[in-house]
Each structure stands twice: as C-alpha cells, then as structure tokens.
Amino acid sequence: MKLIITKTYEEMSEIASNILLGYILSPENQNIAITGGRTPALMYEKLVTKMSGLNISYNTTFYNFDEIAYKRSKREGITISDLRSYFFTPANIPEENIHRLDETNYKAHDHLIQSRGGMDFILLGVGADGHFCGNLPNTTQFFDQTTQVVMSDAMRQNVGEFHFSDPQEYPDTYVTMGPRSVMNTKNILLIANGKEKADIIKRILGGPVDPLVPASILPLHPKITILIDSEAASELDEITINQYK
Amino acid sequence: MKLIITKTYEEMSEIASNILLGYILSPENQNIAITGGRTPALMYEKLVTKMSGLNISYNTTFYNFDEIAYKRSKREGITISDLRSYFFTPANIPEENIHRLDETNYKAHDHLIQSRGGMDFILLGVGADGHFCGNLPNTTQFFDQTTQVVMSDAMRQNVGEFHFSDPQEYPDTYVTMGPRSVMNTKNILLIANGKEKADIIKRILGGPVDPLVPASILPLHPKITILIDSEAASELDEITINQYK
Amino acid sequence: MKLIITKTYEEMSEIASNILLGYILSPENQNIAITGGRTPALMYEKLVTKMSGLNISYNTTFYNFDEIAYKRSKREGITISDLRSYFFTPANIPEENIHRLDETNYKAHDHLIQSRGGMDFILLGVGADGHFCGNLPNTTQFFDQTTQVVMSDAMRQNVGEFHFSDPQEYPDTYVTMGPRSVMNTKNILLIANGKEKADIIKRILGGPVDPLVPASILPLHPKITILIDSEAASELDEITINQYK
Amino acid sequence: MKLIITKTYEEMSEIASNILLGYILSPENQNIAITGGRTPALMYEKLVTKMSGLNISYNTTFYNFDEIAYKRSKREGITISDLRSYFFTPANIPEENIHRLDETNYKAHDHLIQSRGGMDFILLGVGADGHFCGNLPNTTQFFDQTTQVVMSDAMRQNVGEFHFSDPQEYPDTYVTMGPRSVMNTKNILLIANGKEKADIIKRILGGPVDPLVPASILPLHPKITILIDSEAASELDEITINQYK
Q1: Contact A135, A218 (CB under 8 A)
Q2: What is the DSSP letter of A85?
Q3: Is C191 within 8 Å of C16 (Cβ atoms)?
Q4: Which residue among A199, B89, C181, C234 sits deepest, i.e. has the most Cβ atoms within 10 Å of its Cβ?
Q5: How far is D102 from chain B (nearest CA, A)?
Q6: Measuring CA to CA, which residue among B79, B74, B98, B67 is closest to residue B37?
C-alpha cells in the first residue's frame, strides 16, 4: 500500500488523472473500472483535457463497477450516466470501448473480466460510512461476494435516499462488484477528499478489518494506492502517515 | 483464487513441487518464502529430485517467513533448521541464496523485500486452528501487522507445546511475517492435506473474514492458489468447489 | 534470458512439462501457444500424466501458432492435428479451451490475443535452419511481421518437403505468427534437443541478429528461457554457458 | 508496441511526464533509468512541478543508463550531471534514491538491477543516427551486449564532438547499458520530437532490424511505447500509423 497525501483537492485530482492516463496509454490492452460520484469530477475534467487531441486508438475497455437502474424509465442507470457525462462523452470514448454492467449481465461479469485478461485497474471512491462500490456496511458480511445483485433497502438505510428526484423511480435492487471481485483487480487507486472523509480514512488505515466498514479490507490488497487530500488525511497520526507514505 | 483438489497427498506434493520449480526456473530473479512443518515434506523430496543435476545458477533467494529461536542453545532456529534439512542442504542451495529471518533483522524485513523487488511467491501451510506463518487466532486482531515479534505465550495457547524436547529452550518470543506482509506477496500457494484440515479449509473458503481464523483473509488475495488433497476437501460442498476450481 | 541445460532429452521434457503445468494451474486465465513437431512429444506425454485426475476447470486457452492446411482434404491442418493427438485429446482439453488459428481467421489473430489480455506463454521449438513457428530464413526479412500468410514455396526450400504422403495435398500457403507477434508474448520457453540442434543453438546464443537465422532475435526477449539437453548444448563454450545459466 | 503522436513538443512532454510520474507513484518499488539530452528537458520541468509538494517517500531508484566521464576533472560525468540539473536537484530526489552508473561499477550493473527485482522502466531518446543510450551504429554489431565499456572513438565518429568545451577532457572510453540490457527492461518509453528525427523514426518503425540503426531493435520489445510529436511523425505513412496507434 502506498499513501499519497496532496495539499488540495485540485492536486489530488491532477495526480489521479495522471495515474489513470498512465493505464489508458499502456501498450497493452487494459480493463479499467471507474467510479462516478462527486469525488472524481475534477479528475475527469483534467483527464479529458489531457486526452484531447491525442492521436491514439483506445485499447482500453472501461467498466462501471455498480449500477442503479431507474425503476420506470427506460433510460440508462445512474452510474453509467454519470460516467458518460463526466468522461465517456467529452473524451469521445468509442462505444465499443465501454462495457455496461447492469442487471441483465452481472452474473457473467467476473467470468467476462477473466476472459479478457483480468481487471487491470479500478478507481474507487469511499463513502463516509466505509462503503465502496455498492458494498455497504449491512451487505458485506463475509467479504466473499463476487459481482451480485443487492436489495436496495440496504442502500436506503446506509447512504440516504437515492439520487432520484422521483421516488417512484426507486429500484428494488442494484448490482455491484463485490469485495472479492474488487480485491481480484491487479491495481487499485482509492481517492478521497474533504473533512467528511477524515474519520473513515482513519478507520480504514488504522482500524480492524470489519464488515461494518467494508473498505477496511482494501489496505490488504498488494497493489493499492490511497490518494487523499490534506483534509481527508487530517485525522491520521504521524506514525500511520510515515508507515505508508 | 484457484482451488485445486488432488486425489492424494502424493499428488498434492507433486503439483506443489512443480509450481515451486516453475518459480525457481524463472528467467527473472525470484524472492520466495517457503514453509517448514510436515505438510511440505514430500513436496521437498520431490523438488530436490527434480532439481538435482540441473546445470543452472540460482537466481532465486529463499526466505523463511517465521522463526522460533532456541532460548539457550546457539543453534539456528526451528524454521530455518527445518528448511535446511528438508530442502536447502539436499538441493545444494548456495548460502548466498538463503536469507534467514530472525529476531535480529525482522524490523527491516519488509523493507528489504521491497528493495529486492518484492516477494514473488510464498508457499504456506495452514494450521487446524486457522493460523498461517506465526499469525495465530489470538495474535491477529486487525490483519494489519507487518513482520513482527510476538510473545510466544500465544503460541503455547494455540498450537500446543513448542517442538522442543527441552522445556528450558522455550523462547519468550518468536518472529513472523504478519498478515499484511503475506498479503503483499505477488503469488501465494496454500497447501493442506488430511482430514484434520477439512474443517479449517471449509471455514477458510466459506466463512467470514475473522481474526480468530487468521487464514480466512487469504482468499481475498488476487493471486492465490489453494492446493489440497481430497481429505482436506472432504467438507467442501459442490457449490464451493465449482465456484473456485 | 535464462539458459537451462539438462543431461538428457527425458530430463528436458520433464522440466518443460513442469513449466507448462505451472501456467496451466495459474489462478488467472492464461493464453498459451504451443508447438507441435517431434521435440515436445515426450513433454506432452509427461504433461498428460501430470494433469490426469486433477479436479480443476481449465481457465487456459490453448493456441496453435502456425498452421499448414491440406490442399484437398477437408480435415484439420497439420499443426492442430499434431496438438490434438499429442495433448488435447489425451488430456481431455475441452473444445472451448482450444483456439484454432487458420487461414480463415489469421488476420484477426493478434487483435484477438490482445483483447483476451495478451499471450501469456509460448512454447517454441527451433529448426536446424533457425526457423521458429513458420518464420523461415527466406521469409523473415525485417522481423516486423505479425500473424500472416506465407507462400509455402518458402517452406519447401527450407525445411524440405511437407509432411504429406500425397503431394497433391501440398497447400500454396500457410499461416504463422510472425516475429513481432511472438516477441509480443509475455513469456517464452524455447526447447531443443539433440546434436543436430547444437550448431543453431550456438548461433542463436552467440551470433548476430540475422534474418537468415530467424531465431537469433529471440534472446532479446526480456523473459525467455532456453531449455536444451546436453547434446544441443555441446557446441556452447563455457563463457556463454556461465553468462546465461 | 504503442505509437502515440502528439501535436506539439509541449504535449509530448506533458504525456511523458505523466507516464513517468505513474511509475514514481507506484505502490511497489521501482527501478527507473532515465535519459539526459535536450529532448526530455521540458518533460523534466513539468515532472518537477507535478512532484513538488507531494508528501510521499520515494520508493523509486533512479539510474543513468550511460556515462561519459571527464578525462581530467574530478567532477561527475556528463549524463549524471544532466540528470541532476534537470531533475534530481529541483525535484529534491534523495541521494539514496540515485544510483550512478560509471566506469567503476558497470560490470556489476546488470546483476545489481536483477538483484533489485529488474529494471521496471526506461525512458529513452533516440539519435538522428539511430543510436540509443551509448549504442552507436558502429558499436552494435550483434545486439547482444549487456552493460559495457566502449571506446569513445566510436562516439566521435558518429555523434560529432563530445559536449566538452575543453578537448583535453575527452575520455578514451564511456560506459553504457547495451541492447540486451535495455531489451531486458520491463517497460520502455521512447520519446522523439522535431523534423530532424522524422527520418530515423520512419526507419525504426518501418525498416529492417539493422545493427547500423541500433534503435531498429526496440519495436520488438513487448512493452514499448513510442511517443513522438507530429514533426517526428511527419514521414510515417498512414498504414504504419494505423497499425501501431
């Protein structure tokens, strides 16, 4: 594990965009799963700028690692929509380089990834409650799940209401790569910023492996980088910082 | 994770020796930590036979991953003595390709491994109580330890008396690579055989991640192979076998 | 590069089967291209024995790296037929784990391999004339070919008559992975045995990179192992042996 | 091989600095050899900016891959001096993370790199005459050299006078990693810009492997990225660009 602490959110976003770009420019095909949400917004903005004008073909396939469908509308789910507006559309990623995980194909997801050579890189955020992807404190008993469907009640209990303006759009279930699928990735980058993440970062780096803090499993991955701004690092003690930096 | 079930202990030993030999014959330098104990005895016998007469130079460095010193005698500790008699001596491994972990150098162990390019491969056994290396049920609260010294009372409580004929040789402490150090290895092979391991294998593959079963963390490693004979696999159900085989 | 010299052909075959088995047992999916011909015959025999009775699912896909079709018969080509009789059939490799390269699909071959995560391992023989796969002294001007079709006149000039009892079966062309495709593999194992290979082994290990000795390019691969018996090594000098062993 | 063509030198430098930064920020120790000369000047400037203010410890060791000593002065050689002024000093790289290759230690260089886990990444420039590192058209007959000492007459013939203001400082020899050492690196990035490199880039990507064009060997590396600006790409045809981009 490597811990990188930046002064600002802007600097965290710059570094994250560089790391992600490194994978995209690899001479080998890459399978990359990336996160939606607010944390990576500036990172994607920077990445789109860096990629514009490059005369390359993409030998990267991008994946969403969870998906929350709309119950009534036929439109695409929340995660993939996020990724499109943040990244795929402005960066002109060809549709054939985008793989949508959803409720129709999740059962074959881990096998598909394996048949394509494995997941090379996953960019994760972390919730203040310790969730990553859709692995919530009350859905991650054993850490042994692969890609799965989860009852969305769990999400309501943990991370508040869905991001739906219309409550009738609440789905009954959502899909997510499970802890085992994520740990089976070759390289992980976890990003976090802001004071509201300081407590969970402290628990992840210094506390026990605990199903009630799902992200507590992540530091045991052999190739994980945790990239956070100074606010998210504000509750870490010197010993922890020096041990992992 | 890949699960390989062999019919017999002999076959398990044959496969394990082949996998280990593959690392030893790699064109790149390899750092390899290997286990003592009874489980690998036949594997080492087979490996020594396979290696005899090969006109190669060894670009492998071998490590012990734990060590129990004798309190009074000046002789080498239990683990390295095991490895010498099983493997290093009959295979004529040059002394410069052997790194002894002990109480004088354990603090620098993880850093040393990193400076040599990381641990490429670790061969582990597992105790009926779920311990691996010196990580015992009552010493592994957080899974976050690196290479460390442990009070040997813990060992007495868990795995019975030390293997000392003379009780005055009982040391007060022993050293071991911790869960984090082991998880930081690039490839892991866990071997187990016999009915007395059937219950712990079932708990490792099907149960929660639990500090009281230290080896329960291992299936979350992205590149672990679990190689067991049919007796050790006898309590696994078909679903588990088909999921991982 | 690592050079391994065994006393006998039998020992060379044993080591080669162990290395190949190591890839087949990997916890990750593997793409493996393997050679036909006489050199690996005993290796396949040993490999089949080692694999029999293992209760594993194969997450390896096997590939032929060249193919010579029959001109008139509808039967499968020479290479894949060799591989079936030596290995696929006795080892019960499921058909879905076999990918046949032939004249209908060679153009997409390199792209297909990339989309599956790259070729992990290739087992090569070498001809007394320095050819590897179908890369012959008079077809390999620039070393920059990928998988391609070649006029079979070249083969007649170099490696004698085809292995056809009926001359009317001689095809006009054959297909082969080119030097670039082979060099793009993650790991290479080159095997050779017998006095008739001693001269070419000497030229490969000690001579210039020369399109008239196609295999002369191979020692520049970062992860190649050259595994030969003492007869094939009989013209190497001590300096060369010590440099690479 | 992956070919990346940028519009400008500035953009080439930006991308190169991102790729290099990706290795520096790896959670694993990295051995990285980097180039002096004019081509990377802006890249280092950008890299220093990106690295400033990062609260990380460096687990990267940096290497020069060739060295031209001063004959009379006791000062450090030309290459390491270049690297210090461009990068090590402004980026505050600790001295313990810098390994100087010179005439006192070159014989042990390849072995040292291997004992540290291998060279992870090398950043190369290319001369208009096709040289890379100190591998010149008239010193690279067989492509099989490892790190070596070379008579500096060769350099005078090929790349003009040394960069010495005082002719009495001309050394009789210089040291360089040879073609085999460079090809033995895990990942290669070759950068080039400007019209004076257009012809050599064309020959490297489209011509034969030729000892008189030492860099012609590089495209056969399985993990090389060639990153050039539009001027250096100006003599490439569409087929070549589409094949490799």
Answers
A1: no
A2: I
A3: yes
A4: C181
A5: 21
A6: B79
Q: Are A42 and A13 in contact (CB under 8 A)?
A: yes
Task: Count how many Cα atoms sit within 13 Å of the Cα of residue D229 in the half-sphere of its side chain.
Answer: 19
d(CA C148, CA D23): 35
Q: Cβ(D135)–Cβ(D154) under 8 Å?
A: no
Cβ separation of B142 and A208 shorter than 8 Å?
Answer: yes
B114 in contact with D, Cβ within 8 Å: yes
**Tokens coding B195:** 């009915």
Using CB atoms within 10 A of its CB, is residue A212 exposed (0-12), middle (13-18) or buried (19+)?
Answer: middle
Residue C116 has pLDDT above 70, yes or no: yes
Q: What is the mean pLDDT of residues C103-109?
A: 96
Question: How many other CB atoms sit within 10 Å of the CB of residue C41?
Answer: 15
Helix %, strand %, coil % for chain B, to 5? 40, 20, 45
Give ipTM to 2 decimals: 0.89
Separation in Å, CA C203 to CA C3, C208, C214, C237, D213 = 14, 8, 11, 12, 22
At residue C224, the 3 state secondary structure works out as strand
Residue A211 amino acid letter: P
CA angle B66, B67, B73 (to 5 degrees): 180
Strands A173-176 and A66-67: what pairing? antiparallel
Q: What is the pLDDT of residue D159?
A: 65
What whole-number distance in Å separates Cα of residue A24 and Cα of residue A31? 9
pLDDT for position A201: 97
Is B208 in Cβ contact with A209 (below 8 Å)? no
CB neighbourhood size of B234 (10 A):
16
Find chains touching chain D: ≥3 CB pairs under 8 Å: A, B, C
Report d(CA B223, CA C62) in Å as an integer: 21
Tell which of C23, C26, C28 to mutate to test the A interface (max A CBs under 10 Å). C28
Q: Which is nearest to D217 in space by CA: D207, D225, D202, D229?
A: D207
Q: Is D129 exposed, middle or buried (0-12, 13-18, 19+ CB in 10 A)?
A: middle
How confident is residue B163, by pLDDT bands cut at 50, 70 and 90?
A: low
DSSP D225: E
Q: Which residues touch D180 (CB under 8 Å, ≥6 apart)?
A: C1, C219, C220, D143, D144, D145, D146
Residues forming beta bridges with residue C210, ordered by sequence position: C213
Of the candidates A25, A100, A99, A18, the residue with the CA atom closest to the CA atom of residue A56 = A25
More confident residue, B156 or D230: D230
Residues 6+ apart with CB under 8 A from B183: A220, A221, A222, B143, B217, B218, B220, B221
Amino acid symbol at C5: I
Q: Per residue in B80-109, is it b (16+ CB within 10 Å) or e — as a string?
A: bbbbbebbbebbebeeeebbbbbeeebeeb
* Closest in B5, B19, B224 to C55, CB measured: B5
The answer to whether A66 is a known catalytic residue is yes
Q: Delineate the domains of chain A, giving CATH numbers in brackets.
A: 2-230 (3.40.50.1360)
Q: What is the mean pLDDT of residues C133-138?
A: 92
Q: Which residues contact A36 (CB under 8 A, 6 or more apart)?
A: A64, A78, A79, A82, A83, A86
Whether residues B29 and D59 touch (CB distance < 8 A) is answered with no
- How high is the pLDDT of residue D156? 76
User: A144 to chain B: which residues are within 8 Å by CB?
Assistant: 206, 208-209, 219-220
In three-state secondary structure terms, B105 is: coil
Element (H, E) at D20: helix D9-24
Compute the distance between CA of residue B183 and CA of residue A222 in angstroms, rounded to an integer: 6
Which among C70, D133, D170, C56 has a CA at the least distance from the CA of B1?
A: C56
- Rg of chain D over CA atoms, in angstroms? 17
One-letter amino acid of B239? I
Outline where B25-126 has alpha helix (H). 41-51, 78-83, 109-115
Residue D195, helix vs strand vs coil: helix
Q: How far apart are CA B177 and CA B183, in angstroms?
A: 10
